[in-house]
Amino acid sequence: MDPVRIKEIVSEWIASFSELLKTTDQQTISAKDLEPEIKKLFLDNSYWRDLVCLSWDFRTLTSPKGIANYLAEENRLQHLKAVRLDDNPAHQPRDFPIHAALPPDGPIFGIIMFLELELSSDRIGTGMLQLGRDEDGSWKAYSFSTLLEEIKGHEAKCGPRRPENLRYGYEPGRRNFSEVRATDLEMKEKQPAVVIIGAGHTGLMVAAHLTHMGIRTLVIDKNPRVGDNWRQRYGKLVLHDPVYAESLPYMKYPETWPLFAPKEKMGDFLESYAKLLDLNVWTDSTLKSSDYDPSSKQWTVTIERGKTSGNAETRTFRTNHLVAAGGLDGQPKLPTTIPGLASFKGKNGSGVIHSALAGEAAVAGPGEKIVVVGMGNSAIDIAQGSWENGAEVTMVQRGPSYFFRRDSLVKHGFMTAYWHQSSLPEHEMDMIMWAYPMPIRMTRGAALAQALLKEDEEVVQKLKALGFKFTLGPNNTGLIGIVAERKHPYVNDTGCMTLVAEKKIALQTGSIDRITEDSIVMSNGTTLPADHIVMATGYQGAAASVKDIIGEKVFSQLGKPFEYDEEGEWIGNWRPSGHERFWMCAAPLVFSRVPSKLLALQILGAELGLH
């Protein structure tokens, strides 16, 4: 489409929407009266996803009626004062596949644009609008996303707002940087306003935003060093997502960083990230108790620090907010109902080990027999690593799995392909991804699944011929649906499944009858001799991890955390949890950049008394 015509269409829509804002700013308008005005601007099958912009929550509204009800409730539309087209040259309106329909229809193209939003209470927002054609040929909104960007006067101290550090003049008794940091880290002069449990990528990202917005934050982690959650895993672990989708706020990877980083580099980067961003992190530290006082709106938390190093101390703080950042997976899960699980001896008496706890022991050596139970990413990494070491490898698949090759995902993935190929900055690419409500994500997921299946058809058919149980997930939505549902594993393959298809790694499917001191016996009677048995059988989930952190009393108030509500939003994750001033955050790294800032802004808003 002609760029001039695109601008005309966009300008007309913004002008009409701005007139609506003027009307609602001058008077309260009911949902009944607002709905016909919304219908003039939005398609019947449209969506509005509001991320901490018109309310301090994550909401997805469907259809003009649903949108009107939401905007009229609490006069929310009055919070939106002005909408302007973003004047950044890289953000100009353009053709864009707003709906990735399945073949043979192909994608439906519309217009995408980024908007600047002026909000009440000195807040600034970002919008992403996608326009599509109505049946009468008019251009209306298909998807509108509004996202809180910053609160004026409390912007992150970065870029042109970076701290000075060296002030002109003199000051008797001035402390140097190391002295200031050491005092700050010890938390003896001031109490932390926020305590975060978990120094993985989510905890560190939230801490980075809070710290540089001026909110005093302490992160605690049970491991001896930041990054040990990566270092302690099996030896050949490499990130399966490419570098251009995996960066952290405020600090980019070096230009020489590999496309797919090994675990050691990822662990070291997180440790450097915490240090260079001046985050207050206590390692070798655990939360011993927490108690909330609703009258003062504060938590009393007791932390045990330095136990394994022999320098144990116990500290108690009064803090305003408690954040659980224990990870999306939680603790390892062993199939304890399998008879004989404890009877297996293993080489050197190692017994049955879980992939997450095994470290280097997870990979077998030359001439050894290893049985890997499970068919997810950890399973294929361990199986392939063992085969490359010269071991005899058998994989046991008990239930259906989804499979795709990593290279196919990089080529076709609507996330990774955009980051790699687009000229848009990373923040805008994140915005595109987060703007999509669940129904659109599922539709795009189904299209992606078909593209990957076509790309990987030959390997899939070979695997099926060997008995591999293949699934495309709920409603054939592939990776997107499987990640959302979390009922089946998926295989982001880097070569292992080709080894299986070529029978270089053996495949057994079905249930396990029992485990003996030196083998696994399948329900069909097949015996699998083993020097090593690795259970790559998943994890208990984020909810169980939160329960361990916070206890039954608080956990019982959280509803069904990390499941999805009727609007397709994560329950309690990155948003109000159900308990005052208790927050939860868990997601893969690529899905954590946007919500980590939004969570920090919610906490900042609470500290400022805005909600």
UniProtKB/TrEMBL annotation:
| Presence of the UniProt keyword Oxidoreductase in the record | yes
State the name under which the record lists this protein: FAD/NAD(P)-binding domain-containing protein
Which Gene3D superfamilies has this protein been placed in? FAD/NAD(P)-binding domain
Q: Which InterPro entries match?
A: Auxin_biosynth/cation_transpt, FAD/NAD-bd_sf, Flavin_mOase-like
SUPFAM superfamilies xref list: FAD/NAD(P)-binding domain
What does the UniProt keyword field contain? FAD, Flavoprotein, Oxidoreductase
Single GO MF descriptor:
N,N-dimethylaniline monooxygenase activity
Query: What taxonomic lineage is listed for the species of origin?
Result: Eukaryota, Fungi, Dikarya, Ascomycota, Pezizomycotina
Cite the Pfam families for this sequence: FMO-like
